[in-house]
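For the sake of clarity, the format in which proteins appear in this thesis is described at this point. Each number in the token line that follows is a code from a learned vocabulary of backbone shapes. One such record is shown here in full, so that the layout can be seen directly:
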Amino acid sequence: PLTGPFGTVAAYGSSYPTATSWTGTGFGYTSSDTSIQSSGNIFGGGTKYAAVATTAPGDIVADDPGPVAGSPITNQTWTIGFRATTPSTQIAGSYSTQVVYTCIPTF
């Protein structure tokens, strides 16, 4: 969730790996990766959202699960996006959180 001097912006209502098209309020994220491990296109290419994980190990937001044979993978990129929508009763102000990304190479 996002926290600030006027309270908290709650987590988005959908969780990983069942991301949904954005509705309602909350703080969530999306990924442009269309093939996350065996789960497939969880985020609809960046159009579906899930709540940000608050416990370890977190969610896999992008990966290349296949073995690399022959030429190395180069210039592979994904976009991770965040969205926050508050109820009309939420007091305007500065809200923040901390997001940790862990990159693990597999050889």
